[in-house]
Amino acid sequence: MAESEADSLPAPLSSDRFEAILGSISDGVFTVDTMGRITCFNRAAETITGFSRKEAVGRPCHEIFRSNICE
User: Can you give the pLDDT at residue 1?
Assistant: First the structure.
């Protein structure tokens, strides 16, 4: 019996697993929502910006990065 396409797709990442993966990346990684507010911020992004994850998440991207990256 052949597998259907849906059966061969990987399961979605849990929030904890997603955070663990982002934490292991040595590059600064962040995500924003449709309003430009930071929703995720990894350790490397903390080092690069000087802002902690707690300080950055929920704030507008332009307040943290002060550059065109947020446009």
Answer: 47
